Q: What sequence folds into this?
């Protein structure tokens, strides 16, 4: 993985700001991460943490009043900022694909599935229409849609919610991209349907060596799926590392709180650990640690920008007071 | 049932059908002697439930399984097509007006979306306080004190009582909805996905609030959720629904440790959890069939790995296979 040629995407010091009437909201403020070929990266955060905007920034989909104001996004070694609109369009939908949370928005309701899928193939490849149709049918089969030869002639509304999400995944995969950005693709779905989608995605990543960025608020899904995880809070990555390290030995107070607040069999009838207060307003942030108002370990020092503490290879935490070593730190933290 | 005494709420053979009203063309056609096929959805099908005093009953199922419809019937928002609901030993359909009003106050519901359930043009003061004033549960002289107390108990700053709902975050709005329910001395609450729209850290705050209030006010709760982790955390007993029927119910630890219905087993195997790392995901095959056209016999049979001929023909009746553990399956064994 240290081999530079195997890095699919590297994001360095990315900054995406939204210029509003009330001031500047730093939705992403100095975010860096890498993703290797075939790797699954989880980006975890609560509403307003900037996790979705990260995906949009990579795709170049940030609209006014938002703007990427700094940093570098390198896709297979090539700086995305230096690309023309035409070149970017060739990359998007072909080499990089995105899956949105709401498949209803991603699919055009007045076009049949075959039209939408064949269009996607033909936009990026010089193949006859018949061949494109075959590719599309194969794509549908891959995501587990029964009788794809006939179902491809249906409209999006003729599918159930889970099926529609599979359609948008099938479309994202049509041109065998090197990188998929999945923005909360299973949040609106039921547990059994979520398991089916996770199963298909995992299989595809393994078979094709596709890199995947899984953006979610759900740490439990992350635990089962990803290799590497970044925890975001108020526009910054506060902790990152291999998934087992981060979940078993969380070092940032926010990660600890987040893990402790998940209800499980062990927390039955006991109070959950609760992070006091609520997520900060992005407009009101200063240079200090954004979490300090909710953090029990905060001191005077936290009013300065927190340092990034390296804890090992691809393992770091953004905090003045990284917490304990013990593996059960979070589990034993239920109140009282 | 493992618990002693009469249940606070007893539901027997409760069903709800939603049918299309025939349109004018169909009506004329019928007049002329034609037969019109009416489509009907059996949203809830012959459900038996007991809820004991002070208990939290978790009602779990996937979208479209009828859990919200069942919840609305329990809360009195929907009239059942068939079956009876007995509250405190009395059939709620056969009450006189005064008793009906008293019970309507005692049974309250909290909804998933606190943006939609609070009137945006009313101040918190009247959202929480109007009902108890109207029903004479508080005097004008002590009203402010009453309101402050209630807000404090639900973790709200009484200084905000003249604000509007949009000035609060999602978690705070859910607290307002809880305070509104407690204001009328309700002791039976139907919670429909109350924490689903909240972030994890806010969800933890609301769940903790529930635990506090439950013991303080002696609340009996039906907690509807699709999130098995939350249900396992909070509930005393759990009922699993599939396509309008309760397929399995048992005490929480019993159900999570020894699920007997194949659907429950599949469902539990698929809950993601912090301890499940590097999972090889596998899935229950297929999808929930359309409730317009449910399969005959056991409704789970097209997806069930153990289905045999009898499952395709006969609807399984609930059997108590272990103490307090009822399963609707032809093949389940204790």
A:
């Amino acid at each position: 993985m240290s081999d530079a040629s195997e890095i699919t995407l590297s994001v360095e010091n990315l900054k995406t700001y939204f210029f509003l009437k009330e001031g500047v909201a730093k939705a992403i403020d100095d975010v860096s991460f890498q993703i290797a070929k075939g790797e699954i990266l989880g980006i975890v955060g609560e509403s307003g943490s900037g996790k979705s905007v990260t995906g949009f920034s990579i795709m170049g989909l940030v609209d006014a009043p938002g703007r990427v104001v700094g940093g570098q996004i390198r896709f297979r070694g090539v700086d995305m900022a230096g690309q023309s609109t035409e070149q970017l369009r060739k990359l998007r939908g072909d080499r990089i694909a995105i899956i949105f949370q709401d498949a209803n928005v991603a699919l055009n309701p007045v076009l049949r599935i075959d039209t939408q899928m064949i269009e996607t193939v033909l936009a990026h490849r010089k193949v006859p229409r018949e061949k494109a149709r075959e590719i599309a049918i194969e794509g549908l089969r891959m995501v587990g849609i029964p009788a794809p030869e006939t179902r491809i002639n249906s409209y999006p509304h003729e599918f159930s919610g889970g099926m529609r999400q599979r359609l948008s995944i099938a479309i994202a995969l049509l041109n065998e991209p090197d990188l998929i950005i999945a923005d909360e693709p299973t949040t609106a779905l039921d547990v059994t349907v979520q398991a089916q989608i996770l199963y298909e995605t995992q299989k595809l990543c393994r078979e094709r060596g596709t890199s995947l960025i899984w953006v979610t608020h759900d740490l439990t899904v992350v635990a089962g799926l990803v290799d590497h995880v970044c925890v975001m809070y108020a526009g910054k990555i506060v902790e990152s590392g291999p998934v087992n390290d981060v979940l078993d030995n969380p070092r940032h107070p926010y990660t600890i709180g987040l893990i402790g607040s998940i209800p499980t069999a062990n927390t039955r009838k006991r109070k959950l650990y609760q992070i006091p207060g609520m997520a900060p307003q992005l407009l009101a942030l200063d240079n200090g640690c954004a979490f300090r108002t909710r953090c029990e370990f905060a001191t005077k020092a936290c009013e300065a920008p927190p340092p990034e503490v390296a804890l090992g290879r691809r393992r770091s935490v953004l905090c003045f007071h990284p917490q304990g070593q013990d593996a059960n730190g979070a589990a034993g933290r239920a109140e009282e | 049932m493992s618990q002693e005494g009469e249940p606070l709420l007893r539901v027997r053979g409760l069903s709800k059908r939603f049918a299309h009203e025939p349109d004018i063309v169909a009506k004329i056609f019928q007049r002329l002697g034609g037969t019109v096929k009416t489509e009907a959805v059996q949203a809830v099908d012959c459900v038996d439930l007991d809820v004991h005093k002070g208990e939290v009953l978790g009602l779990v199922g996937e979208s479209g399984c009828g859990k919200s419809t069942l919840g609305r019937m329990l809360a009195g928002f929907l009239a059942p097509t068939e079956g009876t609901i007995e509250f405190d030993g009395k059939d709620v359909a056969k009450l006189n007006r005064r008793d009906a009003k008293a019970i309507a106050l005692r049974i309250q519901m909290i909804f998933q979306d606190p943006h939609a359930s609070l009137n945006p043009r009313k101040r918190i003061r009247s959202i929480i306080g109007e009902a108890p004033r109207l029903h004479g549960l508080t005097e004008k002289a002590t009203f402010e004190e009453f309101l402050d107390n209630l807000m404090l108990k639900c973790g709200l700053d009484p200084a905000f009582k003249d604000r509007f709902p949009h000035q609060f975050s999602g978690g705070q709005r859910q607290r307002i909805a809880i305070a509104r329910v407690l204001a009328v001395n309700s002791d039976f609450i139907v919670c429909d996905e109350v924490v689903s729209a909240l972030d994890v850290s806010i969800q933890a705050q609301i769940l903790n609030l529930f635990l506090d209030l439950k013991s303080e006010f002696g609340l009996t709760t039906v907690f509807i959720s699709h999130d098995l982790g939350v249900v396992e955390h909070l509930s005393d007993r759990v009922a699993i629904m599939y396509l309008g029927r309760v397929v399995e119910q048992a005490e929480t630890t019993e159900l999570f440790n020894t699920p007997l219905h194949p659907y429950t087993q599949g469902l539990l195997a698929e809950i993601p959890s912090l301890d499940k790392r590097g999972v090889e995901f596998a899935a229950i095959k297929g999808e929930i069939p359309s409730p317009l056209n449910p399969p005959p016999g056991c409704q789970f049979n097209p997806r069930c790995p153990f289905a045999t001929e009898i499952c395709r023909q006969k609807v399984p009746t609930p059997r108590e296979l272990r103490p307090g553990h009822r399963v609707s399956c032809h093949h389940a064994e204790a």
In short: Chain B is about 35% helix and 20% strand. The mean pLDDT of chain B is 87. Chain B touches chain A through 42 residues (CB under 8 Å).
